[in-house]
Amino acid sequence: MESDNEEHNRYLPPSDPPSEASDNNTDGVVQTSDDIPLIGLVYHNADNPLSPIHPFPPNLASLSGRCRHHPRSSSLPIPMTPVGGIHHVLGLGHPPLLAPNFNLITPWTQKRFNYEAGQRKWCETLACQKIEAKEVREAKKVLWEENESMRMALFLDQVAEMLEEKLSERGYNLADFLNHLFNPDRKFRYDWQWKSFFAHKATVQRIFNYWTTSKYSQTVRTVVLDFATSLVEKTVSRESQSVTASEMLQKRKKPTLAPRMFQILDAFSTMSRQARDMSAAWFKKKNLIAGSAVIGLLKGASQHNSYVHAINSTYLMATGAQRQIFSVLGSMGITMGYTSIIYQPPEQIKKPETESNPVVIDKENNSSQESDEENAEALSRVKKKRKKRSPGTLYELSQACCKTARRVASTGLFITVYNNINMMFRVAEQIVGCKNAQENGTCATIFPLWNAKPEDMLVDDLHNGIMNAPPLTIDDIQLNDAEADQGIIINHGGPGFNRWQAVMEKCQPVTGDTIEVHKTDVHPLPAFKVDESSTVGNVEVNDCIDDELRLDQDKPEYNRLRLSPPIREAPPLQRLNAGDQLTIARQCALVTVRSGHKDAARAYKGRGFLPGLFHGKMTDIHGLLETHFGKPHAGNRSPGGLAYHNKCLDQLPIILSSLPPFSTARDLVMVSLYSRVLHCLLLVSSKASLDEYLETVTSWDMLHSHAVMIYQCYANADFVQEMWERRIPEEMKREAAQKAAQKVVHKAAKEAAKQAAKQLDEFVTEVEDVDTAETTQPPKPPPLLHVKASDMVFENAQLLLRDQLVSRKFADAVECGDSGRIVLVLKIWACSFCGHGRTKYAHEMLHIIHNLTHVWTKGLRNIILQNWLLNPTGKKNAFIEIDLVQEHLNYWIKKIYKADGDAHSWEWLAMVSPCVDVLRNLAGRMNDDLGSRQGKKHSSPDMKKDINILMASLAKLEVYVEKEGRTLDPDEMPVPDVISVGLADLVHGSALADFNTQFHRNRERRRLVPISSLLNHLETADPISPPSPMQPPQITDAHSVPSPNPSRVMHVQLPVSPIPIEAVVHHVDLPDAADSSDSDEDDFADLDTITR
């Protein structure tokens, strides 16, 4: 206590002793009465803490509070006492000890405070007066300008009226006056044209803008637009001529950097006979040889002259050359080394950690001694820095391709497709830890959207479309009659039909959804070592794609519209994903599973899914093959089936239990179709051969009428139904009689088994179950003979031709990019897939039809129809399905660009997969410029011989001639009309109802608000006042989701927001696997991992 008093005493005058109560006054409260302590007059200098009393600090007046008993001026603010006491502001640990009756401020000080306050008030008054004066001046200025504008307008109106009267008196008009005024040949004093008109640039531009506004007539705007167009054409033409005159783009004007060297090489490699007789093409080749020699010498002079060698090495990589070829050509100076092409720098280079003074510890005496020799070696290693190796050409190309893909993804207008890739890692000799293995991965590609606008891809529009979409009805699945394709006759009838090729192209049906011919940019992504066959695998693949494209789902700008300038609350855009049926089903299952558990981005609510049309085409061909294959060993008894045609062509046998590759099945279906159409053409025209047909038929109209007759007479499902009705009653009676007889036999066998069991003293329970024994099963009855009514062979042939024409129609629509015709075929497939028994693909067709009809907006629908077909070549009739593009890329990765040995790894595939498209284009360009003309694709096989063989078979066996009573073998059933069967299943079965039920269930799940989003909304919302105890809380009507436990349902009223949310808080359960048919597989064991 004494030390504290001594510390306070050194800041006080020697005449003022400390107060007795100062030891207990440690709370830092400053009095506001007249007895304010003397500390207000003491100022402690921070530079000299031992200094005596200093003048009062200038800013202490605001901290001192009211002083003495002087009246406070009304203009002075009420002073505030600092929290903790004024001694804390001055930096003192404790309040000083002062006399209780000491007066703080003198009258002179109070007078000075009042004067300063008055000055501040006067300054504020003057500032307000200046502002008011400025506003008055501005208002007067605006009023003066308005008056001056009115006076000028009045004056100019008078001048215009006078000018109009003067010109009218002489028969002139305003155009004549302006023509005279702005004629360049006319000169005025003081350059009046420039000073009075053109010098006022803003006014001149305003006049030009007047003429282009809607306030003038369309004729005036057209005149101005025509003049502006002609002016731009002249300007651009002059600029083009100036570029041509500069010769900057002409190859013949390029300077030769080594003219003497090339002269020497020309003299060394050209004989006099060659200079006299050699053609220009051979001279071009000789110059190429000389240039290659010079490039090789320059590479020997400096390693930096390796640009051409890098191109040659990349070309070898693009053609799948082996490593030894790189070594051989590299030794000749033609290419670079293999390692220089594929070298990939390590991600993290470990630098050796060397100490400045390494210490050696002697273990015997635990002493430390320095080793001079080791120090020298360590210093030498530090000085010799390893030369940094530049990355390989392939690695840099891969990084450039990935960077380009990220730039495309940053726009948000792109579509993603991915598919699995199965790699077989083989070894020459298997040892422990090294054996043959198949690993599954995923390859993905993105494509920029064609004719897409950001405002058509908003997530809110997709959500509203799903919420408001009506159920799918049978009226939405309208079946259109397939047309007999004249292209089959023109393309496969022979050379004589080519004269109608141009007319046929003009008469082809075209819808308004045809895609404009353009080239699609392909941007493959690195291969991922992730198996996408499961639901969890699809999550990992999408996460890998986001990581590669630098798209973070946790950031607020994820998939948001790019605006200029960027804003945080930009609307989110949709992500379009395409793939095969299983891939789309897995992602739809993720939307169902994660709804209500994850936010919108991680629940994939903002993603649109496109079907893989190529996989749908594969399903159609395989279903057609199974339905119309026929009995393989029936021979001439079943001449209309595909099995008999396969036997006639002497092809490898086909077993339906193990379907052949898609190309084999498609070739058989198409060649059978071509032969049937040409055979039916001879039937409807009553000609014996195609040559006779060409001699007699010379008009396109006649050919078109014959094509229509082919469809009406030989691909008519209604006529087949009429033929069925002739024998259906009799067949039903025979089947009923057979079932009744079989029932009697079964009952007699059952009684005999009971009697035998009683004789053997069997138990009663065993006697009751004796009907399940194998001995009681009656033998299967032999198949009944078919009713000899109508012609079964003719019926099957008609249905086969109808289904083949539908498949051909889809292929032609894809080739020309007509999305409207594709949609029509998809509606037919929705029925035929149900008839084939392929319910998964039928569900996918219903899903896409429902989206196109009710869910997607018009803008999004156009984007889908314009981008589910791609054109990588940019040529006419070269469109292919989006999933087929990914299949082609996977093929090139597996067959051409795979490595051998230890280099065959996923790291290698990740580096080479983004370069696949670039390498293929480079190989094609090099082959066109320097190679021989071998073409870019294989030639189509000549099917004329195959078609003639099948046409002869159809004519000999009279397949398309109706013969009453012709039947099939008893064990071969007639072919069903899969379209009618599927349509009946949709109308009367449960397929359509199950789809609508599932869609409604998934839509209700989308309404669930995740707990995380609900908490964030409650934290940012305004506080809700608690209800009074006498009144119940006001609860709004909320549409809650039914909960298994109603006691846990609680409705919460949230504050008003742009999107009203009525939350339902209840326990969250994962959906049952049986409730989600989108998954198509029983793999919901990992749902807990997905939603965690």
From TrEMBL:
Domain of life from the UniProt record: Eukaryota
Residue ranges occupied by any DUF6589 domain in the UniProt entry: 492-938
UniProt biased composition (Polar residues): 21-31
Biased amino acid composition, Basic and acidic residues: 1-10
InterPro entries per record: DUF6589 (IPR046496)
Compositional bias (Acidic residues): 1075-1086
Pfam family, one: DUF6589
Annotated region described as Disordered, given as residue ranges: 1-31, 364-385, 1019-1046, 1071-1092
Protein name, per record: DUF6589 domain-containing protein
Native organism: Piloderma croceum (strain F 1598)
Classification lineage: Eukaryota, Fungi, Dikarya, Basidiomycota, Agaricomycotina
